[in-house]
Design a protein that fits this description.
Distance between the termini: 28 Å
Radius of gyration: 27 Å
Largest sheet: 2 strands, antiparallel
Number of helices: 6
Length: about 160
């Protein structure tokens, strides 16, 4: 009995035939033979689980880097508050932006998806209008790390 043929719904895919193995075994000739069982559903589940974990870890990595990048405090001076300048990451004043960053992981048909973002009203304004990109900039900076998380060899 060849496990992979039965589980995958295939009948004798290589033309070896189970009868041939039974004959060799009856003659005592299976001493140098081996059997490979391919449990397609179990392997598929394991691969799906591993890749789902990788997608989640990649999202968590970007999430933590965004939080790190926007954690520098504003500077209070005698002239007022020194906020971020164009091209810099937004500085933390109340912590509302930093605390609003989220990771939303979902399994979908055929894979998984992770969303990293914020639900604050002014985040888009910071990203696009004020030249203080923090989500897209962090994503671009971390793409090589994300790729290494997703592409490393399976265990």
């Amino acid at each position: 009995d060849v496990g992979y043929a039965k589980d995958a719904g295939l009948m004798d895919p290589f033309g070896f035939g189970n009868a041939r193995a039974a004959q060799a075994q009856a003659r005592g000739g299976l001493t140098g033979s081996f059997r490979i069982d391919w449990k397609a559903p179990a392997v598929t589940r394991a691969i799906d689980a591993e890749l789902g974990q990788r997608v989640y870890r990649a999202g968590k990595h970007v999430y933590s880097r965004i939080q790190h990048n926007i954690n520098t405090s504003v500077v209070y001076t005698s002239n007022g508050i020194e906020r971020s300048k164009p091209g810099e990451y937004p500085r933390r004043e109340t912590g509302k932006l930093r605390n609003s960053i989220f990771v939303d992981f979902r399994r979908i048909v055929g894979g998984a998806v992770v969303y990293v973002g914020t639900d604050t009203d002014y985040a888009v304004h910071l990203e696009k209008s004020m030249n203080r990109s923090f989500i897209l900039r962090t994503w671009r900076e971390e793409q090589s790390v994300v790729n290494s998380i997703l592409k490393r060899p399976m265990r």
